[in-house]
């Protein structure tokens, strides 16, 4: 049976399970194979949720660990990202409102999608912070698996291909495993001992040009907005496709509604939808010029715009437009070599798969082509201040590419001779080896990183108990400052890296912050200007600023312990 655009939605179960090959065969198998194929499909469905769901469970369980000497995260990418999310979650908990002040840039809008952290805060209010982080991460992860499976089965009905696609996507890795063997040789440790103490991640070696990190560890675990946006975006694309195929206004409107609310979850996914829509619409005009489909595209675009624009204006003070010609993404070397070593064997197989699908099924090729253009555009232009954030677009290209490569491998290796099945297994093993090493490493103690000491937690608790939830603090700009991250209070200026990546101009305020710690009349003017309530002097401030201690000693001490002093400067003008 040859798949065309006319019969994509007309597969019957009998056709699927009888075909000698999953797709592309025209000879039906005997009727007694029905139960066998059904059992196999059920097995692979259980395998999908069992393996990838278990990994979500494990990662969610260990993402925030409260130990006797402080708080730890279970993976290096959480060391930065989770602290920022904690600042938003605690801000929601302290304010009891959806409209919150920016915890790291007081007096400004958050400038960041809030939904994931707002939901986490609601659950934390009646349970605990650790449980709310676990349950949201795990449930949204399972939802992502379910919708990813739905997306794939919209086009390819076979559970084996679904499993293979998700295996390539979730356990991805390039040629970084070369350094695993190099490190193993240098360490002179037995294999098991080395596996339990691996010194680095083998999909994330930036100093050696490895930037295409395992998807669990780079996106789904640390980026809570993406974790929720991924299933919403895929579901919107499925609804849009079905709406266009069936000329269904219901599906089109639902897709537009989902896309219109994406700024609440992750604006990058809305940008992806915008770029894909432009390219699909252009293909539509060039190929078909079907008036009904063009009308549906316009309806989809109108609904998305009506919902998204007000949300964007309400959440963001700064402009979201950042479009810079910067070829090479994060590469500092030849771009072909960069992607070859980052993707590994997957890269050449993808190129072969593109030519293969062009000849086998032109309709599928045109469905994949706009995602391929996302890859091209993301390697030519930068859409965010931090070039690595282009990966939030690239990950969708990679997801569809995994489906294409899995389809090619299954059709050309896993339904053929034993020798070809062995070759196919070797190819898959090479594609997931580095990713499997990095995921295995999360089961070992070497991935635990302390983010807060017990003193940090005590000072944050004192701030929560002794100051107003609307109070503004002056603190150091380190990313894991306990006041901004744990107390639910806003600081004049937090971590510069986050502000820069969010497009917030902070240089003027950074200079003002130094002036405040120097004391004097200028400091008093700035305290009034920014409506500052408290000035913090602790270990981070002492290492970052020149501090005029005699100036601050004239203010009452609101909170104090052996390492910290927090001064009440609300009445600075009267002193």
Description:
The chain is mainly alpha-helical. It has two domains: 100-110 and 451-574; 158-446, no CATH class. The chain is 61% helix and 6% strand. The protein contains 25 helices and ten strands. It has helices at 13-18, 33-62, 78-95, 115-126, 129-155, 159-170, 177-187, 191-195, 215-220, 224-246, 249-260, 267-287, 291-315, 335-343, 346-360, 362-378, 391-414, 418-441, 454-466, 482-486, 496-501, 507-518, 521-529, 539-544, 549-552, and strands at 64-67, 70-73, 324-325, 381-382, 449-453, 472-474, 490-491, 534-537, 557-560, 565-568. The strands form three sheets. It has a five-stranded mixed beta sheet. α11 (249-260) packs parallel to α13, α12 packs across α16 and α15 packs across α17.
Identify the notable features of this structure and list them briefly.
single chain; about 575 residues; mainly alpha; 5-stranded mixed β-sheet; 3-stranded antiparallel β-sheet; 25 helices; about 60% helix; about 5% strand; disordered N terminus
